[in-house]
Amino acid sequence: xxxxxxxxxxxxxxxxxxxxxxxxxxxxxxxxxxxxxxxxxxxxxxxxxxxxxxxxxxxxxxxxxxxxxxxxxxxxxxxxxxxxxxxxxxxxxxxxxxxxxxxxxxxxxxxxxxxxxxxxxxxxxxxxxxxxxxxxxxxxxxxxxxxxxxxxxxxxxxxxxxxxxxxxxxxxxxxxxxxxxxxxxxxxxxxxxxxxxxxxxxxxxxxxxxxxxxxxxxxxxxxxxxxxxxxxxxxxxxxxxxxxxxxxxxxxxxxxxxxx
Amino acid sequence: xxxxxxxxxxxxxxxxxxxxxxxxxxxxxxxxxxxxxxxxxxxxxxxxxxxxxxxxxxxxxxxxxxxxxxxxxxxxxxxxxxxxxxxxxxxxxxxxxxxxxxxxxxxxxxxxxxxxxxxxxxxxxxxxxxxxxxxxxxxxxxxxxxxxxxxxxxxxxxxxxxxxxxxxxxxxxxxxxxxxxxxxxxxxxxxxxxxxxxxxxxxxxxxxxxxxxxxxxxxxxxxxxxxxxxxxxxxxxxxxxxxxxxxxxxxxxxxxxxxxxxxxxxxxxxxxxxxxxxxxxxxxxxxxxxxxxxxxxxxxxxxxxx
Lengths: 260, 306
What we know:
The complex is a heterodimer. By secondary structure, chain A is mainly α. Chain A is built from twelve helices and no strands. Chain A has one domain. Chain A is 78% helix and 0% strand. In chain A, helix 5 (65-88) packs antiparallel against helix 11 and helix 9 packs across helix 10 (180-200). The longest helix of chain A is centred in the middle third of the chain and has 34 residues, at 111-144. The radius of gyration of chain A is 21 Å and the shape is elongated. Chain B is an alpha/beta fold. In chain B, 36% of the residues lie in helices and 29% in strands. Chain B has eleven helices and 14 strands. A six-stranded mixed sheet of chain B has the order 6-7-8-3-9-10, sandwiched between helices. A four-stranded antiparallel sheet of chain B has the order 2-1-4-5, covered by helices on one side. Chain B has a four-stranded antiparallel sheet with strand order 12-13-11-14. The interface between A and B is medium-sized, with 23 and 27 residues.
């Protein structure tokens, strides 16, 4: 497991040198603060665009703090997810197709250790981006709109983060056996598929990890319909992540060499 | 004590296509073995199986009499055909990373990494990004990372094939130097490289071992007398040349592309006198007559059935 630590340090150094550790958190921060800022300045923006019927501006009501925060997190489900999937797609595929995997795996590094290091590195990136993004979004929401319960923000971010981690784990799984673009596409398609299934059959699929975004919104609104509704989605999300991780290390062990 | 490496009945099948078809050989500690063969002979696949990167479809590899496992990886150094490194790392960082992965402590890793870089003549480039290295420098870095943990067996896949003559010279000199300290298996399709540094030669063709032996034993085994004849392009002379394919004292005859005839003979003395007498009697316009023995290149061509 010591080799996993060295590999993790290498992954983090790679993320730093490729500026991933800088620009992905910046994207998350921008996505997060855009929501409260645009909600607060909406009347001004409308005024500047002219042609607003009189009385319209008076009708504009500032959305609630919890609603704004939920919308901020919702941004991460679209653009944020795309950014994360694109940044993780090369994780295994790049090492395999580039030939660097052949050199490091001839050393005592096991595929399981390499996969743990890669997964942990992606988790670090996700936690950093989501943490900074959500903190900035909450700060601007509190400043411009109104009070938020910090524990609710933390809970909602954690639930949303788990869903994002599910999709990142999908990307890692596909990256271990397919080329990078295919891995990104398939993982996003899998996420969309899970979300769609959950919208179509919300009751039978209450336990699915795709319920996590909805639960995160409910956590913010403090309207938890049923207590402990989060238990099964969280458990199934963790199970999905573990399966993806084990699958990725197994597949990476079988696909160490470039495909021909 | 068992041999360092025992390979028996190694098979590898890719998508129904046999790439390595039953290879067996033993290797003693301290030897240098060349895997020689044309492209597609299965050399790379064999080396990847020896490096533990591919699992054989059938057959076994024993190192020190034991099946290869995780411990084995600490004792081998591997250099693939065209090594790729993390281009964003410096040479020094990569060496350090590689030695830590092989289980060395921080101080030991730093010391060995610096020593190997210096020995490879890379000390000036140590703090530069690998992305800016030349092909020869990358190959030397590849050799450095394969040797940094003092492996007992060095596996090199075509270490000089992609290099210019100067880079080739450098690597061959380094190989000769390290060949004295450790056991080496390297693959090549250039016979001259094998002759230069190796003790043993394994000739491979179509996934099988075509010939295996020490350099000197192969020379002795294939030391057959050969006569090379060339005549002017005249009908009678060419007919005379053709007639050799049916003579009893000729073991084998072959026309070369330049029109000369290669004759493998049983007994040089009698064959020479017969040929020269006939040529004189018939007034054959001889251009060339040469009596010699097979070169290793011919041995190779013969062994792989070229």
